[in-house]
Amino acid sequence: MVKLAFNSALGQKDLKKEEKDEALIPQDVDVEDILRVRQQSRAWCWCMCLGLALILSGVVVGGAYLYRYYFTEEEKMYFCGVNYREENYRMRDSQEDTGMDLPTASKRIEERVRVLKDEGVELINIPVPKFSDSDPADIVHDFNRKLTAYLDLRLNKCYVIPLNTSVVMPPKSFAELLDNIEAGTYLPQSYLVREQMMVTGKVEHVDQLGYFIYGLCRGKDTYKLERRETVFGIQKREALNCHKILHFENKFVVETLICEP
Ligand SMILES: *[C@@H]1O[C@H](CO)[C@@H](O)[C@H](O)[C@H]1NC(C)=O
């Protein structure tokens, strides 16, 4: 009973409202106005469609770009670690007589790698190392330019040296090695190779060292390096101002000691 009364009351209200609305509509409706409204709504529809098309194409292009960036084989980003043993040369020499193998502590190095096979470039990032006093760094190996550049991220200085192909694996092989490390089919128990570099002078025109090294060293103090064959001059080493970068781009880990006179 109550419900019914309520409904009828509502119905009455609606009726009154309709009457009011009808009264509001002018009797002589302008045809031009209606046409204009239609045109406007059509224009608005076109705008919507165009906007939607734009957004869709943006999504497609962006998706393709992201896909290429993250998933294509050529530009895959690796994050890999390698365990290695730091050989103590003196200890090994004395051990050779007895033929015994003293266990040395195994260390671990991790790095981020991008291998650009088409460009012949390897891009390496060494985060702040957990288990050693070496510096974080960004490294570029450019096989077309036959150059290597180290950016020491602690000192914010760049160092350039001719690429040593017996240390740095070519991009294709290196990518294969990293694939195997990631897949777990190759569990590297690696070893350490030490090399010492001397700063021989400043590079003034970084823009002539190719796109990738320019990208790395632009706006930073950049120096030329020269390999030094005497690694065992420990006293000499202490007299110099040296810092090291640990990295790998082969089956072994390399400790690059960079010294300034
Ligand atoms: C390249 O590195 C290897 C191993 O460290 C070294 O024996 C060789 O002298 C280097 N070659 C050049 C050209 O520096």
UniProtKB/TrEMBL annotation:
Pfam short name (any one): BRICHOS
Subcellular location: Cell membrane; Endosome membrane; Golgi apparatus membrane; Membrane
Designated name of the protein: Integral membrane protein 2
InterPro entries per record: BRICHOS_dom (IPR007084), ITM2 (IPR040145)
Transmembrane segment boundaries: 43-67
Molecular function, one GO term: amyloid-beta binding
Presence of keyword Cell membrane: yes
Topology of the protein relative to the lipid bilayer: Single-pass type II membrane protein
Keyword Phosphoprotein: no
GO BP: any one term: negative regulation of amyloid precursor protein biosynthetic process
One cellular-component annotation, GO: extracellular exosome
Keyword set, alphabetical order: Cell membrane, Disulfide bond, Endosome, Glycoprotein, Golgi apparatus, Membrane, Signal-anchor, Transmembrane, Transmembrane helix
Taxonomy, superkingdom: Eukaryota
Family: Belongs to the ITM2 family.
